[in-house]
Design brief:
115 residues, 78% helix, 2 domains, mainly alpha
């Protein structure tokens, strides 16, 4: 092979390498931007968690082991009653949604097409 064919081969390989490196750099840059976006989201969630933690610290109550039995029973009954209220509210909401889905006003429906 003549010497210029080797020059063309090596120049082609060099250009292919530069194209590959450029594509890999672009791919890595896009991944890095995605990581930064996720870090921003994570920082926002961390701020929310920090605010919730401060709220919980303010609402901190005594440990059950330091309370009397009647206080623990009263607290537990309160928690159970709140759970039952939430359960009943969810049940009523489901019933209301089911009624809305199954209710059909026949007078507003067109049964046959006039042609």
């Amino acid at each position: 092979m003549p010497w210029w064919s080797w020059v063309i081969i090596w120049v082609g390989l060099g250009l292919a390498l530069l194209v590959m490196l450029g594509l890999m750099a672009w791919w890595l840059f896009r991944k890095l931007m995605g990581v930064f976006r996720e870090l921003e989201t994570l920082a926002g969630k961390a701020e929310l968690l920090e605010a919730a933690n401060e709220t919980l610290d303010e609402q901190h109550s005594e440990r059950a082991i330091l309370l009397t039995r009647s206080e623990v029973v009263a607290r537990r009954e309160f928690v159970r009653s709140r759970a039952a209220e939430r359960k009943e509210a969810r049940h009523l909401a489901r019933l209301e949604r089911a009624r809305a889905l199954t209710k059909l006003d026949a007078s507003t429906r067109q049964w046959f097409k006039d042609e």
